[in-house]
Description:
Number of domains of chain B: 2
CATH superfamily of chain A: Glutaconate Coenzyme A-transferase
Order of helices and strands of chain A: HEHEEHEHEEEEEHEEEEHEH
CATH topology of chain A: Glutaconate Coenzyme A-transferase
Order of helices and strands of chain B: EHEHEHEEEHEHEHEEEEHEEEHH
CATH superfamily of the largest domain in chain B: Glutaconate Coenzyme A-transferase
Oligomer: heterodimer
Strand content of chain B: 15-25%
Shape of chain B: globular
Distance between the termini of chain A: 37 Å
Amino acid sequence: xxxxxxxxxxxxxxxxxxxxxxxxxxxxxxxxxxxxxxxxxxxxxxxxxxxxxxxxxxxxxxxxxxxxxxxxxxxxxxxxxxxxxxxxxxxxxxxxxxxxxxxxxxxxxxxxxxxxxxxxxxxxxxxxxxxxxxxxxxxxxxxxxxxxxxxxxxxxxxxxxxxxxxxxxxxxxxxxxxxxxxxxxxxxxxxxxxxxxxxxxxxxxxxxxxxxxxxxxxxxxxxxxxxxxxxxxxxxxxxxxxxxxxxxxxxxxxxx
Amino acid sequence: xxxxxxxxxxxxxxxxxxxxxxxxxxxxxxxxxxxxxxxxxxxxxxxxxxxxxxxxxxxxxxxxxxxxxxxxxxxxxxxxxxxxxxxxxxxxxxxxxxxxxxxxxxxxxxxxxxxxxxxxxxxxxxxxxxxxxxxxxxxxxxxxxxxxxxxxxxxxxxxxxxxxxxxxxxxxxxxxxxxxxxxxxxxxxxxxxxxxxxxxxxxxxxxxxxxxxxxxxxxxxxxxxxxxxxxxxxxxxxxxxxxxxxxxxxxxxxxxxxxxxxxxxxxxxxxxxxxxxxxx
Lengths: 256, 280
C-alpha cells in the first residue's frame, strides 16, 4: 500500500487519460502537470502544445506561466500565436484539449470570466484566454480541477467556454465542432457526460472516496453510473516521477 | 525608415492622450520600460490593447492611464489575479474603465487581420460562449461558399504599437526570436510603432546566428527604435535574461493594496528616470 495525496491521485488519473501519440493542447496549472506526467511515464510520444506557440515541447520543469522560456527551449519549434490558433488548433491538428477552470456546471460548461453579474461582478476572473476555441476545435476535451461546491455548480454564472450548453444541446447540429468534454477528473472521482442528456455522471470513484463525499462536494443532484468503477491506485513509479518533477520545478522557480 | 530615439522622445512623439495603444509580447518580451515611460509622461484616456494585460497594464491601469482595455486573458500568469485591473473593474479605482474582452484566438486573428490591412478577422470561434452577449464587437457571419456560421471581429489597428525585441542593426532592422507572440503583427497593424531593443549591432545579416528564415522586421516598417537594456524586465528576453518569476509573485502583494501599489509606483516608476530603465 503506497501513501499518496488526493491531489496526486487526481494528477495521476488525469495523466492516464492521455494516450501515447495523441496531440494535446495544454492549459497551464493542473492540466500541464498531468500532461507532462503522462509524457514522462506511459506516453513518451504524446505531443504537447501550449498556446504561446510552443509546439511539441518537452519541458524539464513545469512552467509557471504559459510563456516560460523553458517551453520554447524544449520545443521542436515555436510558431507565432496567430499560427498556433489558426493552423494547429482551428486547422484540426489537435486531438485533445486539456483544460482547468474556476467553475463548471452539470453540462460541463466552464466559467473563467467572473462570479456574479457581468456588469457588477462580485469577483472578476482572468477571462477566456485560449479555452473557448480549444474546447470547440479540439477533437475532445479533458477537464481537471479540485472538487468543491464552489467549483461544481448547477449552472455557471457565465459560459466562457462551451461544454454542452445550458440545455445540454449546445453542440447539436453545429458543423466542424469537436466532441467536447469526454471526461472530468477531480480529486474525488472521474465523471463523463451521459450519452443522451450530456449531464455529467460519476463513472469512477477514487479509492477511499464515498458517494456521499462526492454528493457533498457537488452543487447539483449528482448522478452515478449504474456500473460504478473504482479508479486504479497510483503506481509507485508514477508517484516517484511526479514527485521528482514537482521537486525539480520548485527548485527551479525558487532559484529564479 | 526607423529613427533612433530616446525612450522619452519616442513615447512623447507617438503616444498621444486618447490614443489606441498595443504593447504586445506574449509573456515574453513585454515592453515594461516603455510602459513605465508612458506612466511617467502621465498619458491619459488610452485604449490599451493586449492579449494578456499582465503586470504592465495592471501598472498603467493603476496609474490612471487607461480609459478602456481590450484583452483576452487578464490574470497574473502562474500567480492569480491582476489586482489593479480588478479594482478598476469591480470598484472603479482610480476611475472606472471600460473593458472589452475576447478569446485569444479572436485577438490573435484580429492582430493578423490588422497586419493584413483587412477590416475584420474571421474565425471558427465563440461557439456556445456567452462572450458575444457582453461584447458587441463579436458578430457572426455566414460563409458565402459553404453557409457555415463563423465569428467575425474587427481587426486591431492601433495608433501605435510598442514591442520589445532582442536587437536592431544600424539600419533599424529588428530581430525577434523565441516566443514571438503577435509582435510582428502588432507592428505591421499599427499606424506608428516603437520597438525597444536590448542592443544595437552593426548588421543583423552578418551575425553568426543569422539564417534565411530569421524573424526580422525591416527598419523601413518601424517608426522608432529605442535601446532599452533589460527593457522587458520582469518578463524576459530570450537569450539575454530570464523571467523574474519571484517578482511576479511579489506583485500579487504589491498590487493587492492601493497604498502599497502607489508607493511602489512612486519609488520604481515616477522617481526612476527613463535612463535608469536602460534608455541609452
